[in-house]
């Protein structure tokens, strides 16, 4: 006689017997002491918003720059700030020199975790 | 474990550089002319060795940093003295034209700039682009992506465009004349160079949708 | 030097220890041989611990051999140096006892003139301690047990130094905290003045440590030292810090300003010989009460047809506001116009120092007028189009 599948579904699936299927720890149930640098290499995109504002202003004023001095200044300041930060980072952060703060680069994180590893 | 914040004491560090191409060791500083010397702290520089002044540096009233840079862009095959001659001729032509204009105009004589250096600076400032288009390949399609320019690069482009426009014109006219026209045009906010810059800005604007494609 | 002396002392004490050990070993043996042929065995069994201590390890033996050899070598070198010094003194007609290193250098320069470009390739005579680098003393005792707990790092001195720096820093940090609790402030007058000094360079540090260190290790040293130095109480461990500092020369007082002489017309004058730039060579005379007359090889400033070169000549004069107050005479040879102008410019600037005040000299130095321009034409390289430019790459 055919038993309708709905009957099993209502009861729910019986749990596996732990004796029959013993748990295997294939990967250690512990976080690694390193992080990969993939996500960090991130975007080079900077000052998108300023660029948008600048474009809007330029379009409104028929691309005459003298009416958009404020926007232009803001845009250039933003880019300069970004480039300076990048240059500074090249000197310190990317070498993994640890600075106080919560915004850490992957190299800095790795250095930290090497100092304070997960308990074995 | 005590944690000490890291600060760089640049004066103390003797970092090893990658490969030094210069004859001077890395701790040598660039020469400082008198005008800037009021800003710097004398105590800091008293121990710093200074590079020898290059042979295009001088304290004469005809010396200008921007002018020096333009001279180097005009130079072809190392003939610097010819370039200097050309630039002097250019500035002379500009001066002549401006004085002529001054004499023709009856009213508002203050609006005509006779100072050639100021005209040159105005022309270059006016023709400086803000953005640049760079080609980026994504999924087999090439996109023109607007990218911000550094200050140095924008000055370079402005001077290059001015020179290119001058060199492109009728071959029977000498370069100083053509360059003088271009510079005067640019200083007044018109002419081919300004148009080129505006075109570039227009293109950047039409490609603004791709701006976030920039990476690497 | 002190380290070297210390090392030698260490070697000596070690060797003494060893010799006494051998003697101790040998003496009872002689007695034992007289009494019984296998006495040595008996003693070994009787006092195993003591004898095991006296056993000399292979490493120690090899080291001792090497050290002896080196000592002998240094001794002969020293002897030869003394004899050479005496000979030189005799040749120069001087007293051998008071013959200093400077005298030696002068004598060698006089007796063996050399046209070799590189100064290191020219003949020289220096004390063997300078010529042969210092060696490390024994780092382990006779049984092969290392003295230093960090012996197996391979660079015990370096790591010991790092430890020392950190202990010093921690001490200062504790002090700062105690002072803060008490409400005291660091003494501003005693603050360490770092502008005139610099940390030892890598090579110098290596010489101090008698160990080779990697770039990253040097970087660790510098950052540790910086952490120590920025502490507000750094002056408390001044003696420690100064061991690793090198004073910088005050650039403005580096060169002695010549005293002007008086010529037959009663005018002051200074002559600078050997003004070099590129391949040009000049000598420049500047006379003080003058009218601004410039003479180059008997001609006036029109000797240079290029405007830039004339501008270069006038640069130091106008910069020090001496234009029209001095006369300049120059003789130039070799090189092209810009090189000659550069040579004369340097000569004028150097001579002008005698006629202006100290502050003006400093501003001239900052403008780069007093620096000798050592840049030369870079040679063309084979396989390249020029000095730097490569040939256009062509696949085939």
Automatic annotation (TrEMBL), chain A:
Any one cellular-component term (Gene Ontology): nucleoplasm
InterPro entries: Cys_alpha_HP_mot_SF (IPR009069), Ribosomal_mS37_met (IPR033620)
GO BP terms, alphabetized: mitochondrial translation
Record's protein name: CG12848-PA
Lineage: Eukaryota, Metazoa, Ecdysozoa, Arthropoda, Hexapoda
Domain of life: Eukaryota
Gene Ontology molecular functions: RNA binding
Signal peptide (residue range): none
PANTHER family reported for this sequence: CHCHD1, SMALL RIBOSOMAL SUBUNIT PROTEIN MS37
Organism in which the protein naturally occurs: Drosophila virilis (Fruit fly)
Automatic annotation (TrEMBL), chain B:
Domain of life: Eukaryota
GO cellular component: ribonucleoprotein complex; ribosome
Protein name (database record): Small ribosomal subunit protein uS7 domain-containing protein
UniProt entry keywords in alphabetical sequence: Ribonucleoprotein, Ribosomal protein
Family named by the database record: Belongs to the universal ribosomal protein uS7 family.
Organism: Drosophila virilis (Fruit fly)
Domain Small ribosomal subunit protein uS7: 57-208
Gene3D superfamilies according to UniProt: Ribosomal protein S7 domain
UniProtKB/TrEMBL annotation, chain C:
Record's protein name: Small ribosomal subunit protein uS9m
Any GO CC annotation of this UniProt entry: mitochondrial small ribosomal subunit
GO biological process: translation
Subcellular location: Mitochondrion
Taxonomic superkingdom: Eukaryota
Family designation: Belongs to the universal ribosomal protein uS9 family.
Main location: mitochondrion
A Pfam family assignment: Ribosomal_S9
GO molecular function, one term: RNA binding
């Amino acid at each position: 006689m055919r038993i309708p599948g709905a009957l099993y579904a209502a009861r729910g699936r019986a749990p596996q017997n732990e004796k029959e299927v013993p748990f295997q720890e294939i990967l250690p149930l512990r976080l690694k002491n390193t992080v990969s640098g993939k996500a960090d290499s991130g975007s080079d995109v900077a000052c998108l918003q300023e660029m948008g504002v600048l474009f809007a202003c330029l379009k409104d004023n028929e691309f005459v720059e003298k009416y958009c001095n404020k926007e232009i200044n803001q845009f250039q300041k933003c880019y300069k700030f970004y480039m300076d930060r990048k240059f500074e980072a090249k000197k310190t952060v990317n070498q993994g020199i640890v600075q106080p703060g919560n915004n850490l680069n992957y190299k800095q994180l790795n250095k930290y975790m090497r100092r304070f590893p997960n308990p074995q | 474990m005590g944690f000490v914040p890291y600060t760089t004491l640049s004066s103390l560090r003797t970092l090893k550089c990658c490969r030094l191409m210069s004859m001077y060791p890395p701790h040598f500083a660039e020469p400082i002319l008198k005008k800037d010397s009021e800003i710097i702290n004398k105590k800091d520089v008293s121990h710093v060795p200074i590079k020898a002044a290059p042979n295009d540096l001088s304290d004469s009233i005809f010396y200008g940093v921007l002018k020096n840079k333009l001279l180097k862009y005009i130079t072809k095959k190392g003939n610097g003295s010819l370039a200097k001659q050309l630039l002097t001729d250019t500035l002379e032509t500009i001066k002549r034209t401006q004085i002529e204009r001054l004499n023709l105009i009856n009213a508002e004589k203050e609006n005509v700039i006779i100072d050639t250096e100021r005209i040159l600076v105005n022309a270059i400032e006016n023709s400086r682009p803000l953005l640049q288009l760079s080609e980026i390949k994504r999924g087999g399609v090439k996109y023109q992506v607007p990218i911000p320019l550094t200050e140095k690069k924008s000055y370079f482009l402005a001077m290059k465009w001015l020179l290119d426009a001058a060199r492109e014109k009728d071959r029977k006219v000498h370069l100083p004349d053509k360059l003088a026209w271009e510079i005067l045009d640019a200083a007044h906010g018109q002419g081919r160079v300004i148009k080129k810059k505006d075109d570039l800005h227009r293109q950047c604007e039409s490609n603004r949708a791709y701006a976030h494609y920039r990476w690497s | 030097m002190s380290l070297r002396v210390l090392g030698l002392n260490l070697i000596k004490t070690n060797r003494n220890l060893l010799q006494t050990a051998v003697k101790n070993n040998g003496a009872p043996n002689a007695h034992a041989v007289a009494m019984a042929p296998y006495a040595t065995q008996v003693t070994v069994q009787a006092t195993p611990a003591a004898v095991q201590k006296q056993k000399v390890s292979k490493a120690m033996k090899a080291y001792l051999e090497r050290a002896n050899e080196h000592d002998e070598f240094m001794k002969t070198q020293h002897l030869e140096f003394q004899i050479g010094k005496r000979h030189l003194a005799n040749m120069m007609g001087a007293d051998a006892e008071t013959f200093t290193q400077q005298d030696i250098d002068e004598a060698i320069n006089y007796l063996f003139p050399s046209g070799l470009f590189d100064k290191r390739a020219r003949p020289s005579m220096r004390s063997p301690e300078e010529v042969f680098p210092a060696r490390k003393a024994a780092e382990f005792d006779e049984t092969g047990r290392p003295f230093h707990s960090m012996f197996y790092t391979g660079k015990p001195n370096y790591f010991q130094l790092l430890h020392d720096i950190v202990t010093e820093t921690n001490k200062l940090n504790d002090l700062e905290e105690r002072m803060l609790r008490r409400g005291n402030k660091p003494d501003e007058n005693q603050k360490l003045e770092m502008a005139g000094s610099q940390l030892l360079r890598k090579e110098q540090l290596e010489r101090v440590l008698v160990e080779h260190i990697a770039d990253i290790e040097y970087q660790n040293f510098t950052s540790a030292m910086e952490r120590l130095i920025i502490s507000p109480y750094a002056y408390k461990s001044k003696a420690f810090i100064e061991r690793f500092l090198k004073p910088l020369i005050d650039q403005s007082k580096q060169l002695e300003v010549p005293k002007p002489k008086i010529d037959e017309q009663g005018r002051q004058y200074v002559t600078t010989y050997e003004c070099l730039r590129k391949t040009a060579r000049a000598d420049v005379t500047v006379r003080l009460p003058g009218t601004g007359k410039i003479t180059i090889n008997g001609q006036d400033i029109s000797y240079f047809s290029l405007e830039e070169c004339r501008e270069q000549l006038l640069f130091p004069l106008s910069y020090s506001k001496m234009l029209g107050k001095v006369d300049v005479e120059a003789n130039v040879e070799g090189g092209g116009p810009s090189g000659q102008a550069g040579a004369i410019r340097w000569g004028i600037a150097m001579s002008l120092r005698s006629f202006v005040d100290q502050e003006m000299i400093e501003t001239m130095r900052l403008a780069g007028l007093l620096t000798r321009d050592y840049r030369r034409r870079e040679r063309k390289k084979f396989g390249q189009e020029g000095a730097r430019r490569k040939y256009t790459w062509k696949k085939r």
